[in-house]
Amino acid sequence: MTGFKRVAGVTGAMLAMVLFVSACAKKESSLPKDRGPSEVSRKSSQEAGQMAEESRQNQAKGFPPPEHQVSEAQPAVAKPEEAMTKDQMAELDRIKEKTMVFKGPKFKKQIALTFDDGPDREFTPQILKILKQKQVPATFFVVGNMVKKYPDMLREIDRDGHTIGNHSFNHPQLTKLKHPETDRQIGQTNQLIYQTIHKSPLLLRPPYGAINDQLEQHFGQKNFKIIQWSVDTRDWAGQSPEQIMATVKREADPGGIILQHCAGGKQLQSTVQVLPGLIDYFRGQGYEFVTVDKLLNIPAYEEYTNKVSQ
Q1: How far apart are CA 48 and CA 42, in angstroms?
Q2: Of the candidates 142, 100, 137, which has an alpha carbon nearest to the alpha carbon of residue 124?
Q3: pLDDT tens digit string along 144-197?
Q4: How many C-beta neighbours within 10 Å does residue 23 have?
Q5: Residue 271 and residue 244 in contact, taking contact as beta carbons nearer than 8 Å
Q6: DSSP count for the chain of H helices, then E strands
């Protein structure tokens, strides 16, 4: 019995060995036989040669070479600001030297949207929404008594990155007032603006654009820049959106300052309706929207004090 067990053990071991060798042979036979290192190397060289030949043929036919592919996105390189020529610098300096301005320099395709008489709770929020959606900065010439009513709207204008200018306290014709009263109109409004957003405007638009030489000199001595306009959309007169667009297309050009309103009556619904298309039109013509201070390269605010006596 002992001898039988030993023979059986040896036989089992031999059988296991046979099965192992057979399995190895099957695994080896399943591997591809023609892909040794040298063959892989030869095939890679052939593929590279074919790609080079295709590239030469494409270039011979006038096709551009394939772009180099990179695995990671490369950072965009910002284009440097083009330096102004002497003539361009002289044009900008001439504009900046003036107390009263109607438009900006012509050498850049820039345009400034301006909105008067606000803020209110009817049209100003609609205009701000469109400007935010279109990512367009604008300049708002606000009236003091409206700032007093709706300080939260003034803060929203400021938070959205727009520039704020002074448009008097209650919209009188300044040329019909004595200087002390005009000073109160402008000074009280600047004070309200400063109390609300901690900024004191240096940009002034007289109501109705009414100004005379004495007032121009008076405000100029107090460091204000009087901002008029080159395009009047006449939205205040009830022009339709189509009429406003026709006016803008006819009269606007580089450096233009466009007059619109953000408060003052139901007729301003045309301003809201035309604004998206107006923005798209100018962008389609290659214009950049800027605030008035950027258009003229001047400061928008005085940091602390108010130059007009209160």
Answers
A1: 10
A2: 142
A3: 999 999 999 999 999 999 999 999 999 999 999 999 999 999 999 999 999 999
A4: 10
A5: yes
A6: 11, 11
Can you say how many angstroms the Cα of residue 232 is from the centroid of all Cα atoms in its chain?
24
Tally the C-alpha atoms within 13 A of residue 194's C-alpha that lie toward its C-beta.
Answer: 16
Instruction: Convert the pLDDT of each residue in 214-271 to its tens digit.
Output: 999 999 999 999 999 999 999 999 999 999 999 999 999 999 999 999 999 999 999 9
Q: Is the dihedral of CA 267, 271, 273, 277 positive or negative?
A: positive
Burial of residue 99 (number of CB atoms within 10 Å: 0-12, 13-18, 19+): middle
**Catalytic residue positions?**
116, 261
b or e along 165-192 (b: 16 or more beta carbons within 10 Å of the residue's beta carbon)?
A: bbbbbebbebeeeeeeebbbbbbbbbbb
Q: Pull the structure tokens for residue 211.
A: 């100004």
DSSP for 233-269, written as a single string: --GGGT--HHHHHHHHHHH--TTEEEEEESSS-GGGH
Closest-CA residue to 235 (of 276, 266, 193, 196): 266
Chain centre to alpha carbon of residue 171: 32
Give 81-107 pLDDT, tens digit per residue.
568 898 889 889 999 999 999 999 999
Residue 29 burial class via C-beta count within 10 angstroms: exposed 0-12, middle 13-18, buried 19 and up? exposed
* DSSP string covering 112-177: EEEEES---SSSHHHHHHHHHHHT---EEEE-HHHHHH-HHHHHHHHHTT-EEEE--SS---GGGS
Name the helix (H) or strand (E) containing 64: none
Cβ atoms of 183 and 308 within 8 Å: the answer is yes
Cα gap 268→265, rounded to integer Å:
6
Q: Give pTM, 2 decimals.
A: 0.72
Q: Are 190 and 223 in contact (CB under 8 A)?
A: no
**Which of the listed CATH numbers 3.20.20.370, 3.30.70.360, 3.40.50.150, 1.10.150.240 matches domain 103-302?**
3.20.20.370
